[in-house]
C-alpha cells in the first residue's frame, strides 16, 4: 500500500487535478484518504455501499436503492417470479 500512496502523491505533484479510483476496496481506501487530506477530487466507478460519500468523493456507480428499483421494474416487466444476482466476491463487486 505504501507504493500506492507514493504513486498518488507523485501524480498529484505532477499537477493531477483529480483521481479516478481503483476497483479494490483496500486500494480505494488509501486513495480516498489521501485525496481527502489534500483536497483533491476522488471519483469512484465501483459500488461502495459501506462508506458514506466524503466531501471530495464522487461515485459514478448507481446507489443500491436505485439498482434495487431498476431490478424490481425489470422483474415486473418480465413477469418473473424470482431472480438471482451472482457476484464475483462476497463484497458484491
From TrEMBL:
Protein name in the entry: ANF_receptor domain-containing protein
Domain Receptor ligand binding region: 9-91
Signal peptide as annotated in the record: 1-17
UniProt main location, coarse: membrane
Location within or outside the cell: Membrane
Entry keywords, A to Z: Membrane, Signal, Transmembrane, Transmembrane helix
InterPro entries: ANF_lig-bd_rcpt, Peripla_BP_I
Gene3D superfamilies the UniProt entry points to: 3.40.50.2300
Entry's Gene Ontology cellular component terms: membrane
Annotated organism of origin: Trichonephila inaurata madagascariensis
Keyword check for Phosphoprotein: no
Gene transcribed to yield this protein: AVEN_268833_1
Alphabetized Pfam families for the sequence: ANF_receptor (PF01094)
Origin: domain of life: Eukaryota
